């Protein structure tokens, strides 16, 4: 297994996780060992890069897709699995900055992307969790604010979120931590590693050329286009799309400096059998509304798949299992004594403004990165607008212009992220003390 926290450089196999243990795609794509030409070269084979390649294929362009490690080796093959509409920044803050109509257009991109993910999954049910729906629960006793927020989201996002009372929630999720919440009925759980690998396969079937274990070492101007140089080959392309996000390393200074790599984690428990019901009886995924939130779901074999945390210390092994288990027991103390099976981490790309960075750096040099912690659906939205811009001159990517490549103080990034996390944790604790008495 390769170093789970390396951000660039050596070629890696998948890290040990629930996803790699249940990978059902045998195909490996070849290394690039030739000098080839193409109209579009996509760099980075996570959900963003693969969605861009698929989008291009759908629109009649056969791109080359280059991945340094394996397809979905980064955040896309390690995440919490929840796909829903919206962005990491949150709709209220988006609307405050760009206005309601612009915010609605941005959110509609993710509504369409969610539908597209479902279409691409088709009848391959194994790529998708058993039950649709993500329950967002409040850690705080503030029903009126919750109801107002649901009304706002339903209006601006054009969604149909439904209020759930504290009693309804605690009936299915036996935690005293939870107050009122809402259901996102359209949200789904996706086996993101298998999904992205299947998507890469679909792109290849449609005419894309896909390469793994081929780290791009530099990109240079070449006539009116670009020369993409890998360890053992080159790609001459009219246009390129950079989708390396948190794992970009030093490949491009401007893109790298604009996105913080923020490490976050997932724990998988042992099968809990009947004991699970003492805590969780609901079939839906759950996420809470603290800054330092947890999100989780159950697997058909009665395991809890538990995500959360941000840490600059990159814990692994038993240490990480203990940290995550403590969080779980804080919500469900009745599960004390259960064992962890495996825990892992990965980097999300976070711009300072918490919105995806999508655009054209200079003619023919595109980027789609920084999708953050609610990034899966947004990556597909990004893939669609960039591929549509390249294939058809569509200008929807300009909706992201207010959220540019702001400098993210990267050298201090992990310290900034960790300090912010601790600060937000303290705020959560204070708010909970103030409201929940
Ligand atoms: C633990 C965890 C839990 C999460 N939970 C959720 C969740 O429940 N719901 C949600 O919506 N989002 C979640 N996210 C966020 C989501 O996974 C990401 O926003 C999304 O997957 C980002 O996709 P991406 O393609 O932009 O980046 P990545 O998946 O990180 O892909 C970038 C790729 O670029 C490749 N690359 C880098 N440098 C080079 C190079 N020089 N040459 C070639 N290739 C290169 C990397 O190897 C990598 O495969 C989570 C993330 C993590 C880490």
Describe this structure in a few short sentences.
33% of the residues lie in helices and 22% in strands.
Description:
With 437 residues, the chain is of the alpha/beta class. It has two domains: 1-128 and 190-259 and 351-406, 3-Layer(bba) Sandwich (FAD/NAD(P)-binding domain), CATH 3.50.50.60; 134-185 and 262-346, D-Amino Acid Oxidase, Chain A, domain 2, CATH 3.30.9.10. Helix content is 33%, strand content 22%. It has eleven helices and 18 strands. The strands form three sheets. Strands 1, 2, 8, 9, 10, 11, 17 and 18 form an eight-stranded mixed sheet that branches. It starts with 17 loop residues before the first helix and ends with a helix. The site of flavin-adenine dinucleotide has 47 residues, from helix 2, strand 3, strand 12, strand 16 and helix 10.
Key terms for this structure?
D-Amino Acid Oxidase, Chain A, domain 2, FAD/NAD(P)-binding domain, 2 domains, binds flavin-adenine dinucleotide, 437 residues, 8-stranded mixed beta sheet, globular, alpha/beta
Unreliable residue stretches: none
What sequence of helices (H) and strands (E) makes up the elements? HEHEEHHEHEHEEHEEEEHEEEEHEEEHH
The small-molecule ligands in this entry are: flavin-adenine dinucleotide
Molecular shape: globular
| Secondary structure: helix percent | 25-40%
CATH architecture of the largest domain: 3-Layer(bba) Sandwich
Structurally, the number of domains stands at: 2
Topology:
Elements: H1 18-21, E1 35-43, H2 47-58, E2 64-66, E3 82-83, H3 91-98, H4 100-121, E4 134-137, H5 143-157, E5 162-164, H6 166-172, E6 181-184, E7 188-189, H7 192-206, E8 209-211, E9 216-222, E10 225-230, E11 234-242, H8 253-257, E12 260-269, E13 285-288, E14 294-298, E15 304-308, H9 317-331, E16 340-350, E17 357-362, E18 365-369, H10 376-392, H11 413-435
Parallel strand pairs: 1-2, 1-11, 2-8, 4-13, 11-18
Antiparallel strand pairs: 3-7, 4-6, 5-6, 9-10, 10-11, 12-15, 12-16, 13-14, 14-15, 17-18
Helix pairs in contact: 2-7, 2-10, 3-4, 4-10
The structure holds flavin-adenine dinucleotide.
